[in-house]
């Protein structure tokens, strides 16, 4: 029998009804022996996530505002779950301990982690699995960086002793000081990936509240098709351009170990979801995996006669951005011209400074600035191998009356990047989506 690592996100563990669904999922999948859980998330619009409530307690405690009432809300959430499911775990002493630590100036990371800790304690009992704390197993250095190899050894050694285990997501501890350290928000995805790698899982199932990734943002395209499978590389392209489904650090451990991720929906377990896998594992001739986009971008174009003969011109251009701490996305070039495409938020109040530095260091003939550009990534492993793929994109935009301001086939050869004026952003995505799917 194979082994699966399953991670359940905040909405999947939000209350007793959701936990009932988890038990059904696990009963149907006996290979699901290692389970990583988030802290209870929102049950309905306007509800609070336990992690947010804990952080609010910390902020109140730091400002000497009494926290007992707010902390009671947290206790009530866990007590309601216990009662609903008839679980017999003594959480009272845990609450006391956490409250005491809160009043004694505990760290932000410690308090942020307690939602997952309590959640895992409860769920382990409910499923009849061992509870394995990730403190001392998921290890960080003094600067808060994950110690990937040490973590892998510690986790595999410990989990080899447990046939079935529930682990809290989101946190581990500093190898030297032993203090609790959390990942950034949404970090239980990373814990799940580390556990999957440590137990040599056949698959990492990431259970959430959507049936996988969609080919386009449903706020832009009506009822977009689901993505059945996608490579890690394609996912990276789509995520970079704004499609979000997983914490970005969750990919590295499983990708390195060749373990696919399956995004599944706790509320619709019959849906196959999306499989994210290494390149070439599935047919990789599909034209379109997905479309994503971001805005606004600013494009600064620099013109200089004989630029192509001037050695070091690009380096000096980029040095200006580096010196001012600005990251750029693309640098399309012509013979005597070069443009830098920068997310407008990167420039904030630095645009004038950038232009002055360009003038002084590059002595250009002309500089022009276009703001309010939207960038769209059309991603598909088969795009570059298919005659007429780019024509399909450009004719869809022509038919929709949309002007393309920039066009670039990515060097990774799995995407085509387009720049359009911001007002054309959504119509452009719809036109391209329709051209590939209808
Ligand atoms: N509970 C944490 C958060 O709300 C971590 C997670 O759910 O992955 O960000």
Please, could you describe this protein's structure?
The chain is of the alpha/beta class and 438 residues long. The chain folds into two domains: 4-277, 3-Layer(aba) Sandwich (Carbamate kinase), CATH 3.40.1160.10; 290-437, VC0802-like, CATH 3.30.2130. It has 14 helices and 16 strands. It has helices spanning 16-28, 50-62, 68-85, 92-103, 108-127, 148-159, 188-198, 232-240, 251-257, 313-323, 344-347, 351-362, 389-399, 425-437, and strands at 4-8, 32-37, 130-131, 139-140, 165-168, 171-174, 180-182, 203-208, 229-231, 261-265, 274-277, 290-303, 337-343, 366-379, 406-409, 415-421. The strands form three sheets. It has an eight-stranded mixed sheet with strand order 3-5-2-1-8-10-11-9, sandwiched between helices. It has a five-stranded antiparallel sheet with strand order 13-12-14-16-15. A three-stranded mixed sheet has the order 4-6-7. Strand 10 and strand 11 form a beta hairpin. Helix 2 (50-62) packs antiparallel against helix 3 (68-85). The chain is globular, with a radius of gyration of 25 Å. The site of aspartic acid (ASP) has 13 residues, from loops.
